[in-house]
């Protein structure tokens, strides 16, 4: 203890009595200071010890099939990039970005440490290439480029990340940068990474397909995925790997077999090989248990999914789906003269019934004098995939904002959309 104090104050061993700082304080004070420093150092070490945890979630209804230490705080590492990508997808969705848009590369981005794709100061990279660089190669330089082009700086982008985290219900997550490189503020849990992944899959299905790609080419150089599950597990189609020394080896995987989809998060594995082995075991467990009675499963994985709202009026289910459905909910009575060119989007879903159910729940939460016109839009996302986007349209900006705030408080996903007519079709 005394040696610790001597080296802490002077940098090398000296006699306590002879050190000028020591002569100013009483022995009791010095003893208390020594204890405080030792405890602080132990906490510092403990905080940087990888936490071994996991969670298995049924993606269709949000039920937790199994978990271990899923609410214990740890470090996300490059799983952070899932949130970075979510903000990119959000900007694409709102028309703030285009896939072929060129992003300027700053000097700061170019000197980011590995892993990187070798971006050069003053050059540009398209949004689509930056997305692939993040997902497939986990490129830190691409993460900074995205952050700096979507916000004034990476620090400003981090504020957007943390705002989005609150909106989608991440309970114990704070972001400190866009890449996942070590940062003292950047913490999360396996449960929160599961919530983040479910929100991304549900809200941006048309962009989720990027997570299944195994390679991409940039400047005549081919980069390959770090996610071996895409090759080793039947049905796996994303999401993200991550590693720093303090976190251990992290992995989020989503896999689908038949009509069943799982989201599984593994945190703190001791090696990449053990991470893969554990993930395969948990996926097998999840698919074995997924169709068992609900009494054998855990509670809902809030806040991504909610208990069904009882006694809600169903939207009409047409015999044959059309690109857009006629509104079936009365328009909210708003003052005349205000522009009703706003709406809110509650999510995008793999089936019409899921979209309808989510709209029903949102309408019930918003009350009998429902906000806007209920609208389910059918669109093609490529490769023959069809999705259903659930929206309430025909609102003023004020009413759209009020509706979203209320829904977010009730753990719905929600964001504002503008100039979308009630009969719009998305391709």
- CATH topology grouping of the largest domain: Beta-lactamase
> Can you give the helix content as a percent range?
25-40%
- Which term fits the overall shape? globular
Radius of gyration: 25 Å
- What is the number of beta strands? 13
Structural class: alpha+beta
CATH superfamily of the largest domain: DD-peptidase/beta-lactamase superfamily
Text of the CATH class of the largest domain: Alpha Beta
Our estimate of the beta-strand percent is: 15-25%
What's the CATH architecture name of the largest domain?
Answer: 3-Layer(aba) Sandwich
Explain the overall architecture:
Helices cover 36% and strands 20% of the residues. With 427 residues, the chain is an alpha+beta fold. It has 3 domains: 2-47; 53-296, DD-peptidase/beta-lactamase superfamily (Beta-lactamase, 3-Layer(aba) Sandwich); 306-427, 2-Layer Sandwich (Alpha-Beta Plaits), CATH 3.30.70.1070. A hairpin with a 4-residue loop joins strand 1 (53-58) and strand 2. Helix 3 (80-93) runs antiparallel to helix 5 (127-137), helix 3 (80-93) packs across helix 6 and helix 5 runs antiparallel to helix 6 (140-150). Residues 1-23, 36-47, 295-300, 302-337 and 422-427 have low confidence and may be disordered.
Task: Walk me through the topology.
Elements: H1 2-10, H2 27-47, E1 53-58, E2 63-68, H3 80-93, E3 102-104, H4 107-110, E4 124-126, H5 127-137, H6 140-150, H7 154-167, H8 190-203, H9 205-208, E5 215-218, E6 221-224, H10 229-232, E7 236-244, E8 248-257, E9 260-269, H11 272-289, E10 342-349, H12 352-366, E11 373-380, E12 386-395, H13 397-409, E13 415-418
Antiparallel strand pairs: 1-2, 1-9, 3-4, 5-6, 7-8, 8-9, 10-12, 10-13, 11-12
């Amino acid at each position: 203890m005394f040696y610790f104090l001597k080296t802490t104050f002077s940098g090398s061993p000296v006699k306590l009595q002879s050190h000028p700082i020591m002569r100013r304080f009483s022995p009791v004070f010095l003893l208390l200071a020594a204890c405080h420093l030792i405890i602080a150092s132990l906490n510092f070490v403990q905080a940087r010890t990888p936490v071994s945890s996991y969670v298995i979630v049924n993606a269709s209804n949000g039920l937790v099939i199994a978990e271990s230490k899923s609410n214990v705080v740890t470090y996300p590492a490059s799983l952070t990039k899932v949130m970075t990508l979510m903000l990119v997808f959000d900007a694409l969705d709102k028309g703030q970005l285009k896939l072929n848009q060129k992003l300027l590369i700053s000097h700061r981005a170019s000197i980011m440490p590995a892993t990187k794709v070798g971006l050069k100061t003053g050059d540009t990279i398209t949004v689509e290439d930056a997305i692939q660089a993040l997902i497939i190669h986990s490129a830190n330089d691409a993460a900074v480029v995205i952050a700096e082009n979507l916000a004034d700086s990476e620090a400003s982008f981090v504020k957007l990340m943390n705002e989005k985290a609150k909106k989608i219900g991440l309970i114990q997550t704070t972001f400190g940068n866009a890449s996942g490189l070590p940062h003292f503020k950047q913490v999360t849990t396996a449960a929160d990474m599961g919530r983040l992944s479910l929100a991304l899959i549900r809200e941006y299905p048309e962009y989720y397909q990027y997570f299944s790609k195994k390679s991409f080419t940039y400047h005549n150089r081919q980069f390959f995925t770090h996610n071996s599950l895409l090759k080793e597990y039947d049905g796996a189609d994303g999401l993200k790997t991550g590693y720093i020394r303090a976190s251990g080896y992290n992995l989020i995987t989503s896999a689908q077999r038949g009509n069943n989809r799982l989201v599984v998060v593994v945190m703190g594995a001791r090696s990449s090989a053990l991470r893969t082995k554990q993930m395969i075991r948990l996926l097998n467990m999840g698919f074995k248990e997924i169709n068992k009675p609900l009494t054998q499963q855990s509670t809902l994985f809030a806040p991504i999914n909610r208990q069904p709202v009882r006694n809600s009026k169903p939207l009409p289910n047409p015999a044959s789906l059309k690109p857009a459905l006629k509104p079936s909910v009365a328009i909210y009575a708003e003052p005349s003269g205000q522009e009703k060119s706003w709406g809110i989007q509650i999510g995008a879903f793999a089936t019409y019934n899921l979209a309808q159910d989510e709209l029903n729940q949102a309408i019930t939460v918003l009350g009998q004098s429902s906000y806007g016109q209920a609208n389910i839009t059918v669109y093609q996302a490529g490769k023959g995939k069809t999705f259903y986007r659930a929206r309430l349209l025909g609102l003023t900006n004020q009413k759209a904002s009020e509706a979203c705030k209320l829904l977010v408080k009730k753990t719905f996903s929600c964001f504002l959309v503008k100039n979308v007519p009630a009969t719009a079709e998305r391709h």
